[in-house]
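Q: What does the assembly look like in three dimensions?
Context provided by user:
Components: two
Sequences:
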Amino acid sequence: MPPRLNIVVPIKRVIDFAIKPRISAAKNAIETNGVKFSMNPFCEIAIEEAVRLRESSKDLVESITLVSAGSAKIQDTLRAGLALGADKATLIDIPAIDDSKSLELEPLAVAKLLKAFVEKSNANLVIMGKQAIDDDSNQTGQMLAGLLNWSQATNASKVTVDEASGVVTVAREVDGGTETVSAPLPLVITTDLRLNTPRYTKLQDIMKAKKKKTEKITPEDLGVDVTSRLEIVSLSEPPKRTGGGKADSVDALIGKLKGVGAI
Amino acid sequence: MVSRIDTLALRYKVIRQFKQLLLMGREYPRGYRYFRDNLHAGFKKNAGLTDVKEIEQKLKFAEHIEREIAALYSLRKYRAMKQRYYDGDQ
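A: Here is the predicted structure of the complete assembly.
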């Protein structure tokens, strides 16, 4: 009996990629008031991959469940994910983690929440973004695999499932090239930019998504303590770009380039 | 002779296409207002059409615009991500 994929796709709501984050007046947090939020681009790629697996072969994918942790505002992001093709969504409600406090929910806490959720939901495959564009941790997927004691294939640029054997082959983007790994289910895959190009939502799908099942649970339901262990000591913007200089002649240009060691 | 059902179906198609484009206009780099005004103008210009063939042609064009905009957004996001996370590799 060929295995059916029960996929969990954890997603994250982040400040929109096109917006430059600013540090708030209090100098201790990122300014989130009135700022546009959207789904982490790597998470969109994860949802797209799950949907493509479903489209590639009838009956291969049993269900695609989205999950995200934080405040109620995440519902919008979950609904956007449902419109992209997921079947159901769960919000792990942590009211204290509102937009301005998102850095206080650390990768290890998220991994613990996800471990409990994945075990509860009987999943055999987790596809998630390799990192979030706000904290750029690139840790949660790896930690999750460790906690679950599952195989992991991170920075995936291609995923193939052998339906007969349940072995998943993943091409990974590593320094210096591509590495191919394979493992039987269950496993955790984190997505690289080159895995796929997500589709744009259709209005009809947004309508259909309203009927899809969403549920709310708490960290207590999962038995996880999400207290942060790290303290943010300071936040500062990168140094402003200083103006460039002008060179009068080719010789002067060469002189300047030599001066900075460029040639 | 085109039946009333056919023209109704076509009408719904046009309205749906309009709404889809309006939805996509929210992320337009030059602003939602600019996009919406141009979208309105474009559809209004052809509001008087009655020939089914002509309407279907314009509808195809609208679908083409939809694909172009989706491609624009995709590319913009891809390029931003690539520049931030991958340029500097090798």
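Follow-up: The radius of gyration of chain B is 18 Å.
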